[in-house]
Amino acid sequence: MDEARRKSTGGEHEQTMEIFDSFWHDRRRWYSVNLPNGGAVTNLPKDSVLEIPAMATAEGWVVPPYGELSVGLAAITMRRISAIEASVEAALTGNRKMFVEALILDGTVSDYATATKLAEAMLKAQAKHLPQFS
Fold first, then answer.
1. Over its length of 134 residues, how does the chain's per-residue pLDDT go in tens digits?
2. How far apart are CA 105 and CA 1, in angstroms?
3. What is the rounded CA–CA span in Å between residue 86 and residue 24?
4. Are both 100 and 76 inside the same structural domain?
5. How many structural domains compose the chain?
6. Are residues 78 and 110 in the same domain?
7. CB–CB of 83/105 below 8 Å?
8. 29 forms bridges with which residues in the sheet?
9. Range of the domain at 108
10. Residues 115 and 103 sit within 8 Å (Cβ to Cβ)
11. β-strand pairing of 60-62 with 49-57
12. Is 120 helix (H, G, I), strand (E, B) or coil?
């Protein structure tokens, strides 16, 4: 295989194989993964998905207890979690008002009028993929 081809097949594929190897052979390697909190970070919802360090073992992912985030970091993280939850609720229900609120919670826009215009433009551009907002 030539060098350019080899480089194009690396990256995440290679890490995936390392993770499988760690599971299979119980190598207990550490990775940054997206997993349900499950109480590892005590002042965030247990069902929220966090990107956290975890060990790949023969028994599965092992997430050590991290305790509490500082008040400031917990507040920022909760705002992100709230924005994601509002986005999901809006997508599942087709609730335009909730979608606008999700944009504001996300922090990319700060006023309702701008968020409403942005939401309408986004929904119009993606209308064929979002029939629930019709």
1. 455 554 555 566 678 999 999 999 999 999 999 999 999 999 999 999 999 999 999 999 999 999 999 999 999 999 999 999 999 999 999 999 999 999 999 998 989 999 999 999 999 999 999 999 98
2. 48
3. 38
4. yes
5. 2
6. yes
7. yes
8. 56
9. 71-133
10. yes
11. antiparallel
12. helix
